[in-house]
Design a protein that fits this description.
With about 190 residues, this protein is of the alpha+beta class. A hairpin with a 2-residue loop joins strand 2 and strand 3. Strands 1-2-3-4-5-7-6 form a seven-stranded mixed β-sheet, sandwiched between helices. The chain has five helices and seven strands. It is globular and about 40 Å long.
Length: about 190
């Protein structure tokens, strides 16, 4: 598994891959009209080009034999502290970064792509001088919750995620980056 940073010209690739993997994982539990609206907004080439151009963000691509197997998107900044009042101590860290997305092609789930990307996210965050990584994960996504918990993330609160017209609840989870080397990854 080779990890590299995405190039600005890969916006269409990220749009297609993101939409496909998001739909594979979440379409069965959501109304088609809400899924279509979200995919059109979040995973279009223009939006991906904007995200790729943002200096506060970075996309890390996992490739196997030159083919995209997964990606992660990081973006520097804190969550809305009002939704995470129970995590006031965590948000006292000066340089948080968000793990916006981490997706793997269904053919590669369970074959090391997720752990390789997560380690690359921690490495990138460390290189950027960040001291805390946080994310939002749908409360109805037990596989992802288990994955994040294995990596030492803890729940800090909730926030609302809008999928089309459906308001869903995400757990906000965080992990202090300095602790990465002390956690055993399984």
């Amino acid at each position: 598994i080779a990890i590299r940073k995405a190039r600005p010209s890969e916006n269409a690739l990220l749009a297609e891959f993101g939409a496909r993997t998001f739909a594979e994982n979440f379409a069965p539990q959501n109304a088609p009209e809400n899924m279509s609206a979200y995919l059109a907004e979040a995973f279009n080439p223009r939006r991906q080009a904007q995200e790729l151009a943002d200096p506060a963000g970075v996309f890390l691509l996992a490739e196997i034999d030159g083919e995209l197997a997964g990606y992660a998107h990081l973006h520097a900044g804190p969550p809305d502290i009002e939704t995470c009042a129970s995590a006031a101590t965590a948000w006292s860290y000066a340089r948080p970064i968000e793990l916006v997305r981490i997706y793997a092609d269904s053919a590669w789930i369970g074959k090391g792509v997720g752990p390789a990307l997560m380690q690359a996210c921690f490495d990138e965050a460390t290189n950027r001088g960040c001291d805390l990584i946080w994310l939002g994960v749908w409360e109805q996504n037990p596989r992802a919750l288990r994955f994040y918990e294995r990596w030492g993330f803890v729940k800090a609160g909730t926030h609302t995620f809008k999928l089309g017209e459906d308001l869903q609840t995400d757990y906000v989870m965080y992990r202090i980056i300095a602790e990465v080397s002390t956690i055993s990854r399984k």
